[in-house]
Amino acid sequence: MLHLTCVDPGLSPRSGMRNVSSRRRRRGRASPQGPLLERAQDPAGMPLPRPSEVALEIAGLGSGPSGVSAVQSLGLTTQVPAIEQVAVAGRVPAPIVVRFVSRSIERRIAGLHPVEVALLEVLRAGPGVVEAPWIDVADVAGRLAKGGAIRPELLAQQLAREYHVAARDRFDELGLDQAVSA
Length: 182
Prior knowledge:
By secondary structure, this protein is mainly α. It has helices at 13-26, 51-59, 67-73, 106-110, 114-125, 135-146, 152-160, 165-173, 177-181; strands spanning 4-6, 37-39, 64-65, 85-89, 99-103.
């Protein structure tokens, strides 16, 4: 479970930020620019792993974020999932703080990366889960393909076996066919 601790909740935001800044300076760290939340740490001072990180290790190769977790991992929403959801290739492990959903074992055999699984899951879920306009999904997918983070030809092969017809159609709309044929 991810533990977040609120820093001095009874103080005003400005005084809380000053306290965090001075505490971080004493520890030799830069001042934070974000919210007044810090990740919980183990006794040695190392940050504890996030539930999604633990879940991906448990789920193994061919797994990745699903549902709102997938949309968030691609930067297409500001929502924070109440429960992390992970698509697992094959059998679903015993539940922890994360919800696992079963998907085709082909994802594991193909060696899909978590970002590729996330894109497949967003294509399955459709525009209803994406806060941004649907065209932003195409932009994100194009950037990921150009950067080498996703392999469009492998995704096309996976979607050819996908029983979710709408996911195949949405993939075609992304315009990654140039990357597949190249």
